[in-house]
Each structure stands twice: as C-alpha cells, then as structure tokens.
Request: fold
Amino acid sequence: MKILVTGAGGFLGKNLVCNLKNAGYDEVFSYDISSTEEEFNTYTGQCDFVFHLAGVNRPKDPREFVTGNAGLTEKLISRLKECGNKVPILLSSSIQAGLNNDYGKSKREAEELVFSYGRDEDVPVYVYRFPNLFGKWSRPNYNTVIATFCHNIARDLPIRIDDREHVVSLAYVDDVIGQFLRILKTGIRLPAGEFVTFPPNLIYERKLGYIADTILSFKKSREDLMVPDMRDEFVSKLYSTYLSFLPEEGFSYPLKKNSDQRGSFTEFLKSTDRGQVSINVSHPGITKGQHWHNSKNEKFLVVSGRGRIEFRKIGTEEVITYHVSGDNPEVVDIPTGYTHNIINEGDTDLVTVMWANEIFDPEHPDTFYETV
Reply:
C-alpha cells in the first residue's frame, strides 16, 4: 500500500510517517514544503491513500491561510482527478473551522472540498476537527502552548500566562496516530459529509494554570525525586512530552550520595503512594541495618556482589538467614516486626536496590535499633 502524507515534516506529519513505518507500511510518500512539483505529481498518481495534514496556521500574511489550506487541498484533489486516482483522503482540520476568523474559514473551505470530492468520486473521506495537539516533536511558539511551556521550563526561561483559569482543549499526538492507523487498517466508511468523531475520553480539558504548575513539578522532580502520578493519563502524556523537550546537554541530573566508612546510600525515586527507591552500597565485611519497623516495609534486591540478609522476630531468638547475590537476582521482603541486617560477604562492594513503602520522614522514622 502506497501512502501519501502531506505536511510530512510537520509535528503531526513526522509522528505519522515514523509510525506508519513502525506499523509495516514501507512505501510512504512524504510531501512537504521542500518537495518538488514533480514529486507531487508522482505521489498523487501512485498513492493508494492520502493523509492530508499540510496546512498553515501562523502565516506572516493572512492571505497564506487560503493558499496553504483551501488552495493546497484544491490542488491535491484536482491532481487526483486528473490522474483518475480515486483514493481515500483523511484531512486533519481544526475545531477553529467552526469560527469566522481567516484561519477557520480556510479550514472550513478545505473540509468542504474534501467532502465534495468524496461524493463526486464515491470514495471514503475522513475529516477530523482536532483540538490543540501536544506531544513529542511539536514546536514551541507555534504548535501549542504546551510545547512553549515545556521548552521554556526545561531551559529556565519565563512563561507567560494571561489567564490561569482559561481552559484549553487538548489531544495527544500518539492517540491521534492510533486513530489514523485504525482507519487505515479497517477502511471504515462514514455517511457522506459526516465528520470523524475523535473519542471524547481522549480529549483533555485543562486550565492553563494547572498545565503550567504540572510541568513545573516535572522540573522540580529532579530535586525532590517525586515521580508524577502516572495513573492520570493526561499527566503521563504530558510528562512524556516534557521529557522530549529537555535540552540535549541536560538529559542527566545528579543525586545526593550519602557516604561514610561503611559505603553509601542514595535516594533515587519517590512517590506519594508508592514509597521510594534507593541504592545502598556496602563495602566488604560491612554490616548495615540492625533495626526493625512497626509498619514500614521494604524490598531488597542485590544487583552486584555477594551477601546475606538476617532476620529475627522481635521477642524471639531464632535467626533466619538468606544468602543473596547479584548473579542470582531475587527480591527479599523485609517484614514488619523483624529486626534485620544486610552483610557484605564478598570481596567487592555489595550493591542493593531498596524499596520502602513510604517516603522517609525524619520526624516519624519508624526505625528502632536492635541487633539481629
């Protein structure tokens, strides 16, 4: 199947082209502003499906709205008719097509051209009116406010919010691509003149202030180590978008390493409901722990070195021993009410990933010294 994508170099187009190839579509014709007229003629003559994503939304001259939106759509349809190539067209339009501004009028005219083409040629057409789209590869100060916020916050640049209570309607680019691929695979056909309805559960209505605060919390997470609430689909998608805007020299960040003669302890990740993850290093011959908890519980995973973990239930004398090694990864649960330790029995550092069910609170540590 040969697929033509107009606007292939743009935010939506780039995501689509890459994922068409991921889905196994090897013959993808990428048409963009840098493409030649000869390429345009070849692609329109050979394609089996058209994703018409090209358009203009921030021109220097308002007249470009007409040429870049309605004009290009008319050119595309005329060329397909000249070739006798009756192929389905999917048009990416905007909710602004319902408005009376220059941009909205040009998008509405493009929609009408595609609907007319579908009726005239008796072929399926798909017209989406999208809200603001966000995701990787979007352009700051062009595609969406989220792109601008992510770009600026990741670089310690100021952001401007005129009205924190203003609500914006948003859709995530990967969800859009998923819809496109579904249509391509199923070939569903809609009644003439009917828009494709984007799933309401994939449209997010959020206040600008909330969006800005959430992105700022992502930046702060490098200091407080708090993991965003990934149960919230919007937050999860927003976090993925934010990471795509990190400057290339800023992918990494330091952690506070607490060291002494025994080794080191470094906190890695924290969450309000899933506790925290830390990395513990013990030098050869060192014993750490020798304490117990009322409610706090932990999991230990040795990833390098060789050691043993000992337990004794409070009020008893029997010692329970588990031998652990990075060569045979296994998780050891640390039950409440058992004093415990971890001893390095090897000749190299013992490295242990430790998870605790709650974030350490120095005011209420729930940790009581008692040797095993």
Observations:
- The mean pLDDT is 94.
- Residues 153 and 216 are 7 Å apart (CA to CA).
- Residues 2-130 form a domain with the Rossmann fold fold (CATH 3.40.50.720).
- The first strand starts at residue 2 and ends at 6.
